[in-house]
């Protein structure tokens, strides 16, 4: 099958039941997407499919064929971090950082829908993401900072 990942068309020969997470990590070596629970309950494996935050561990790779898949590796522009990544760094919104790619991908999806999300929208978008290190307060701060950075970047383009 052919997968469109981070703007590149990639050919993979895999069983129909293989999860998208497994294909990304083991066939395409995109290991930024993490394996946590494997059951859709922790958010570590979150990627964007056509802009929607999606648990890749419970998504068959075949169902993502022909759709635009974005992993955390696809966010930065060369050496320049995506504003959401920059905000997580600025707020040190992690300890071990295992959960961070998943939180970042859901934040990117959230801010594309709600450029200035309220607490309720943020909590709803990030519910189901687990941070074993308990960095939740800093993660919420990073979402607010990311919204500000994106707003500033848009203002500079006007
Ligand atoms: S590994 Fe996919 S939700 Fe936990
Ligand atoms: S920073 Fe360690 S799991 Fe979240």
Describe the protein in words:
This protein is an alpha+beta fold and 158 residues long. The protein is 38% helix and 12% strand. Strands 2-1-5-3-4 form a 5-stranded mixed sheet, with helices on one face. Strand 3 and strand 4 form a beta hairpin. The longest helix is centred in the C-terminal third of the chain and has 22 residues. The radius of gyration is 15 Å and the shape is globular. The protein starts with a strand and ends with a helix. The model has no long low-confidence stretch (mean pLDDT 96).
Question: Quick summary of this structure?
Answer:
With 158 residues, the protein is of the alpha+beta class.
> In which order are the strands of the major sheet placed?
2-1-5-3-4
Class by helix and strand content? alpha+beta
For the biggest sheet, the summary is: 5 strands, mixed
Distinct small-molecule ligands in the complex: FE2/S2 (inorganic) cluster
Q: Distance N terminus to C terminus? A: 41 Å
Strand content bin = 5-15%
Radius of gyration: 15 Å
């Amino acid at each position: 099958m052919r997968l469109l990942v981070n703007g590149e068309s990639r050919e993979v020969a895999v069983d129909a039941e293989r999860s998208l997470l497994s294909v990304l990590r083991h066939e395409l070596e995109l290991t930024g997407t993490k394996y946590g629970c494997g059951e859709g309950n922790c958010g570590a494996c979150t990627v964007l499919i056509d802009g929607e935050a999606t648990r890749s561990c419970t998504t068959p790779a075949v169902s993502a064929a022909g759709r635009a898949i974005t992993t955390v590796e696809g966010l930065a522009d060369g050496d320049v971090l995506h504003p959401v990544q920059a905000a997580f760094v600025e707020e040190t919104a992690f300890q071990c950082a295992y959960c961070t790619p998943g939180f970042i991908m859901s934040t990117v999806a959230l801010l594309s829908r709600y450029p200035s999300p309220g607490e309720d929208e943020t909590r709803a978008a990030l519910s189901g993401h687990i941070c074993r290190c308990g960095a939740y307060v800093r993660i919420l701060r990073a979402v607010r900072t990311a919204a500000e950075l994106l707003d500033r970047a848009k203002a500079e383009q006007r």
